[in-house]
Amino acid sequence: MKQMTTTVTARIAPEMRAAVEPILASNGVTLSEFMRLCLVRLRDDGVMPFEIPQASRDLKKSTAALMAAM
Fold first, then answer.
1. Each residue of 17-55: pLDDT tens digit?
2. 56 Cβ partners below 8 Å, 6+ apart?
3. What confidence score (pLDDT) does residue 1 get?
4. Measured in Å, how far apart are the chain's first and last C-alpha atoms?
5. What is the per-residue burial (b if ≥16 Cβ within 10 Å, else e) of 1-29?
6. What is the predicted pLDDT for the residue at 57?
7. DSSP SS3 for 70
8. Where are the domains of the chain?
9. What is the pLDDT of residue 49?
10. What is the residue-wise DSSP string for 5-53?
């Protein structure tokens, strides 16, 4: 396997990590492997491996606009 040369850090609540790790483990993957699989799908297929609801995209735009206005 090619050596990993970049570290990506994601900030998530401890409760979120505790909730998802057993689900991932039951599917035979770690949290790091899941993140890597998502990125590979994005790179190879040019699409997100899941749908992002419009409300989340709208919230992100609204937050960015508020931060820019400050």
1. 999 999 999 999 999 999 999 999 999 999 888 887 776
2. none
3. 60
4. 46
5. eeeeeeeeeeeeeeeeeeeeeeeeeeeee
6. 67
7. coil
8. 14-69
9. 85
10. ---------HHHHHHHHHHHHHTT--HHHHHHHHHHHHHHHSS-SSPPP
The number of residues making up the chain comes to: 70
Q: How far is CA 62 from the centre of its chain?
A: 20
| Residues 36, 39, 43: CA angle, nearest 5 degrees | 135
Structure tokens at 54: 């419009």
Q: Which of 8, 7, 35 is nearest to 21 (CA)?
A: 35
User: At 35, which amino acid appears?
Assistant: M
User: Which residue type occupies 70?
Assistant: M
What CATH architecture applies to the domain 14-69? Answer: Orthogonal Bundle (1.10)
Residue 3 has pLDDT above 90, yes or no: no
Structure-block tokens of residue 37: 């699989």
